[in-house]
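User: Quick sanity check before I run a bigger batch. Here is a single chain. Can you write out its predicted 3D structure?
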Amino acid sequence: MNTLATYTRLFAVGRAAGRGSAGRGLRFTSLLCATFALALTGAVLIAGFAVYDGRELRGSARAPQYIGVEEPDQAPLLVQVAYDDVGGVQRSVVFLDPRGDAVAPPPGVERWPAPGEVVLSEALRADLLREGSPDRYGKPAGSISESGLEVPGERLAYVRPVPGLIDPGNMTTAAGFGSDERSVYGDRATVPPLSAFISLVVGMLLFPAVVLVVVAARSGAAGRDRRVALLRALGAGARARAVVNAGEAALPVALGAVAAAAVVGLALPSNLTVPVVDFVLPAADLRRWAPLLFSAVLAAALAVLAAVTLLHRTDRAGQGTRPRARGRFTSRRLAWLCPVFLLVATRGPDLLAGGGSLWFLVYAAGVVGTLATLPALVAAAVSALGRLLVRTGNRYGRPGALIAGRRAVAQPGVTARLVASVVVAIGLVTQIQLNTSLLDDAMIAAKATHERIGDSMLTVSSAADREQNGAFLRALPEGAHGLAMEVAHSDGRSLGLYGDCAALRALDAPCGTSTADPADPRVRELAAWFGGDAADVVLHRADPTERLTRDAERLLVISGSGDLAVGEVKEAAFRELPAPQVMVVAGEWLFGAAELQKPAAWTLFLGIVGVGLLAFAAAANNLGDFLRFGHTLAPLSVLVSHRGVFYAAAVWAILVPLAAAGALGVLVSLWLAAPMTAKGAVLTWAFLASLLVLAQALAVLFWFWGSRSAAVQAVRWRPTAD
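Assistant: Done. Predicted structure follows.
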């Protein structure tokens, strides 16, 4: 018999062994899910490289070719980048002034807009429609196609100003578009680097997927280890044994790879939106990297097969009909350390004034210590619960509780590993979510300011002249008033506001020179952010446009009562002022806080998936142990006339521990999060609820699966001479 025929026969032997092995359903499903998870994780990593590569290509293609000329009017193109708050996030508004027909429009723009017109990306147009000001930057004259955007969901606007709106001397000269470096506007300023994305995927997806692969490879390992030992005794070499093992796992691995390849294929024809994070995957980038995407799927399948062939032991016979203690729990001292570390994490930082590195060092030590000693505490609790179940089962005649209790006493580590894996996974993901959303002191103060005064006061800055400022003030909507704000630079603590009588009355002040009412929250916020907590804010009756031509820093727009019509104010500003910056008080810090939302959303999304994979791996491992234990319970089918005992035993062995693990993980995470949330980190109830629901759903699924499988084993059991 030739070599190919031999290996074919061995492969068929492995396939037959897989179909006839005990617990084949669990092993089949575990291998399929592990392959799918690992393949999809590899594809996600490749997709990240593809998207960032596309960002570089399109960002470079639209980058202005800046040049230096003495006279701006001699340049082919003038450029000025401004920013605007849309949807709570800072967006780029690029003013372009082409001089002649020699310069082509930027990529994604079919024709140059006429003076006073704007070309918007579809995502920015939708945001402006939601805010009720679609004409904020000018008359819409088309859309920016995907070829001119770094990603399809990017918010970007190209505005061609009317003549005289922007002084050419304040604009940058350029020869056209296309540079070796990406443009400085658009998403570039807010998108984390590729290394941050890779780190997130590796921690949140790749590590749980690898754990699931290891668990799946060792699922049903007792019978496979005996088969490998037999093949070795018969003289089969390592290559022959590997072929048999590959034949056993080939079908579920192939199906998992095909499923992952199908998901990848769905993302190639058109753009897909990633849920939770609201990110649109550019299909064009994925198509360019399609060979590597499918190669990642194939590599994942080969990696799972390699794990199946390598992760086996031959020194354990796997015999026995009674649960044996797998090493007694000897780390009870660690269990007592867990509440100590929990106290250090939640109360230790309070003993340190302020924050700084020492604060985080104490907090991190408490968190790490809590999560490290938590498995010991869980194991001790499982052992104690097992003894309680034994007493309860004996007293009330509950065979299911009695069986599960004796198993928990004999093998506390099995249940402890299940509970601890889920609890630690939830705790780690929650800590990553907290650190991703952590705000600094200025951001926290800015959010507090906005909560107190809302949109009742806006700051406006631009390089406008007196006529332009006057036109803007006249264009303000009804109920809005303008004041010039001047900060004395000698002591940095003198703050003066200049406006007409209507503006002064909006601050409940007389029409003249007076000190502003310090009880007005807007006055207090101005003093805090611009006057160095100055005790007095002095109001003057004066023409604000006169003061703006002197030493005033910016213009204030206030309302007499309630919030301003922000959209209308911004529309008037972009119509009358050159490249204005309109924002709420301390808006620049609010932008910084808003930029943290995207990374936090990615952490939430990938974290939920990662916890799901780890919980699935832990539950599959526990289910495999329960099925082996269920095989020893099969003779009970002779003594018990119904199969309810198996369902009851599975309740205490699978359902209750996994459900409790989810609840305990959320509770511990919420407890550990208190010091971080006090410093401005965000931990949403939706995030915690998602983790809890996920754990409960897996608990019910694996309980039903395990109990039904054990009951089927009991029905098929026949007395043998073993």
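The chain has 23 helices and 16 strands.

User: Great, the batch can go ahead then.
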